[in-house]
Design brief:
226 residues; alpha+beta; Lipocalin; 8-stranded antiparallel beta sheet; elongated
């Protein structure tokens, strides 16, 4: 009896139809899953290739927007804003003719200093005889003062900054704190003088001065027998 029902079931179209539907459903599910997986991989690849460009474009747009609408927030603009602001220097005292003459001797430009530092010295077109010195994030407005040592001296009484210019180097000091801020700052002309001094060092102030030749002759005459 069991064999009869088994053989009979093999000839039943309903059984084959159910199996065929099940097989088609399984195959359709596999194809659909494979299609979704390939689509996801293509989307990921396109996103990976274009994301740096999108980020770069977004960053460029942000920088352009900041530079266009936020000029006051630009560090470089803040650094040089005072250089062309005439109202900022309207209350500076007028310098004497001697100070204006000393101002003609001030060396300008970017100068390398010790320990990798640098100083920028600029003349102020809005205030004759005044100079603006940049050192790191600091900015000083200085004017020449008369000295008796032969060194060129610029001072900023408000901050205590002092700029000393010698033949072979320049340095900045803080008179309020009594310390040296930066040393060995050299322009091209000062570098040449410094090299010449290394080859022919000047006499030390601690060494005795040589006796003048006229005095040597006088001593020789006194020591000679009559």
């Amino acid at each position: 009896m069991q064999r009869f029902f088994s053989v009979r079931s093999l000839g039943d179209p309903t059984v084959y139809r159910g199996a065929f539907v099940s097989w088609v459903s399984t195959l359709f599910g596999l194809v659909l899953g494979l299609t979704i997986g390939l689509t996801a991989l293509q989307t990921h690849a396109q996103t990976s290739n274009t994301s740096p460009q999108v980020k770069s474009m977004g960053k460029s747009a942000e920088v352009a927007k900041r530079n266009k609408g936020g000029g006051a927030k630009n560090p470089q603009a803040n650094k040089t804003a005072g250089l062309h602001d005439a109202a900022h220097f309207a209350n500076l005292p007028t310098l004497t003719p001697m100070q204006l003459e000393l101002a003609q001797q001030v060396l300008l430009g970017q100068m390398p200093c010790e320990l990798g530092a640098s100083v920028l010295v600029q003349a102020l077109p809005q205030a004759a005889g005044y100079f603006q010195i940049h050192f790191g994030k600091q900015r000083f407005v200085l004017a020449p003062v008369e000295t008796s040592t032969g060194a060129l001296r610029l001072e900023d009484p408000r901050t205590g900054a002092v700029w000393l210019q010698l033949a072979n180097k320049s340095m900045m000091m803080n008179s309020q704190l009594g310390k040296r801020v930066v040393d060995e700052c050299m322009s091209p002309s000062q570098t040449q003088v410094a090299r010449a001094m290394e080859k022919n060092p000047p006499p030390s102030l601690l060494e005795p001065m040589p006796t003048p030749k006229i005095l040597q002759n006088s001593f020789a005459q006194q020591d000679s027998p009559n």
